[in-house]
Amino acid sequence: MTQQAPAHRRARPLTFLACALLALCTASCAPFFGGSMSPLSPQVKSVEAFQRDLEPTIIAARNELVTAENFMAYKNNYSIARYMEDGKTLYSFHSRMFFFTELDTDLIRDTYSARLLPLGFELSEDRWTSNGVEIVDYLWINEEYQAVVSATTRLGEQTSTYYYTQGTPSDGSNGDPKQLIDQPGRIPDWFDPNLPPSGQG
Predict the structure, then answer these.
(1) Residues 112, 149: contact at Cβ < 8 Å?
(2) Could you report the per-residue pLDDT of 86-118, keeping only the tens digit for each?
């Protein structure tokens, strides 16, 4: 028997999620590919430093926006991937993607910006229409940590948010660089651990 989110958490039909994912990732993953981020910069902070220095603040802002009342679904889990580039071992951190019903894009922008801009993030904003739906995409980018926080709103439907790094080295401080550092709030207290990701179960 598949467990699903309670009805009060699904204020919009989850059928929106499948059709939205491609558009969301196409827009939000842009800094991974040919963007302004330079994965081989010698000044890039480590994946461990990202978790120590920036992730707690990102989590705090995210948890202000995503609540038990407006949560719809989630996609993927937290992970750190290792790969080789030009003979160097690099890492990419990927967070869980949360879908929620908040559609006030000014609130979303201001909540993240209040916490992230003082930490050296820069805000990028893009708007377009797809199949009659207006989409507002915010990216907060921190070059020093190769970090991106994404929030994409399909007006009238839903918002998705997640964060990631790309091209970050390891400083060796955590033993296994692929092991996540424990972070309070990374998984919100209200989150049901038995709930399967969207599209599974």
Answers:
(1) yes
(2) 999 999 999 999 999 999 999 999 999 999 999
